[in-house]
Design a protein that fits this description.
Layout: E1 12-16, H1 43-52, E2 60-64, H2 74-83, E3 87-91, H3 99-105, E4 110-115, H4 121-128, H5 133-146, E5 151-154, E6 156-157, H6 164-174, E7 178-179, E8 183-184, E9 212-215, E10 220-222, E11 234-235, H7 241-245, H8 248-253
Parallel strand pairs: 1-2, 1-9, 2-3, 3-4, 4-5, 5-7, 6-8
Antiparallel strand pairs: 9-10, 10-11
């Protein structure tokens, strides 16, 4: 099957190194939690993948999880990515940032991404399932900005009354330049646990496989971390990355995702407040949405199903 016309070749690779996380966010695309694992990819497997990535056309890798810094080889893998000439982005919850991690984030060719859910601590913590997470993440965001670290912040609305748009306005006022539009929680992963339906491609933003791909903690290659419920195109432990990305299984996956053009529909739970819109309705096309996952079910005012 020929490639889908108009899609860019893969240059951005998301590496889902772990499903372990200090948090248990209600919308997590891969149901990460403190009980998560690091999968079956070894340090050697990840290093071999990073070595082969530039020849496959990849220019930037993102370490994501879970919380990627919980992987026992996170720092060596991050430095290995830089050593082979790749740009590096780390998508972290910023719950626990050690001096060694700050040193990495200040390196050239390194950018940082995180999620922020509400301007009110108790509501942010309701999303993450961890008391005190707002205080830690909010403080780390300030440190990153004061340090001049390139930072992207994603805001996901998971229930009515969360004050997600107020959180977006707060981040803009702080000076976050790379601020993703407020996204809705998507019907993927933990968001639909216990529901009588499965994840569906209509829940995807339409950018999967367009210039990007993802590798799971078990080595499976998918069109992005959000599309992990679809069949993989191959596994990097037994097939070279470049061969997978130019192979028939990858090309067969690309048509499965509805393509929404440059302006995907804006469907937050609450309307965008005009005073703090930030020109994000409809959402602009963004490079990576991160853990931006809303099931099509009614919710109470308190946000519970």
């Amino acid at each position: 099957m020929p490639p889908v016309p108009g899609l860019d070749p893969v240059w951005f690779l998301e590496l889902e190194v772990t499903t372990a996380c200090q948090l248990k966010c209600r919308h997590c695309y891969n149901s990460s939690s403190p009980a998560g694992t690091h999968g079956t990819m070894t340090r050697g497997d990840w290093e071999h993948l990073l070595d082969s990535a530039p020849a496959a056309g990849v220019r930037r890798v993102q370490l994501i999880g879970g919380e990627p810094s919980m992987h026992p080889h996170f720092l060596p893998l991050a430095h290995h990515a830089l050593s082979v000439g790749l740009e590096l982005q780390v998508f972290s919850n910023l719950y626990c940032v050690t001096p060694a991690l700050w040193a990495l984030y200040r390196e050239p060719r390194v950018t940082l991404a995180t999620s922020y859910y509400s301007d009110r601590p108790e509501l942010h913590d309701q999303v993450t399932g961890r008391p005190g997470s707002h205080r830690r993440t909010r403080a780390a965001i300030s440190v990153a900005l004061d340090s001049g670290i390139p930072l992207k912040v994603a805001v996901v609305e998971t229930f009515e009354g969360q004050r997600a748009h107020e959180a977006h306005a707060e981040m803009a006022a702080l000076g976050v330049r790379n601020l993703a539009p407020v996204d809705r929680m998507r019907g993927i992963g933990r968001a639909i646990e216990g529901e009588p339906f499965s994840a569906h491609v209509n829940e995807l933003c339409g950018q999967c496989g367009d210039g990007r791909a993802a590798v799971s903690a078990h080595g499976d290659v998918t069109m992005c971390v959000m599309a992990r419920f679809l069949p993989p195109a191959g596994n990097v432990r037994d097939t070279p990355l470049g061969e997978i990305l130019h192979g028939p299984y990858w090309n067969a996956l690309l048509p499965l995702v509805p393509r929404r053009g440059d302006k995907p529909p804006c469907a937050p739970i609450s309307e965008c407040p005009p005073a703090s819109d930030g020109n994000d309705c409809p959402p602009a096309s963004t490079e990576c949405e991160g853990n931006a996952l809303v099931p099509p079910v009614a919710r109470t005012a308190g946000g519970d199903r």
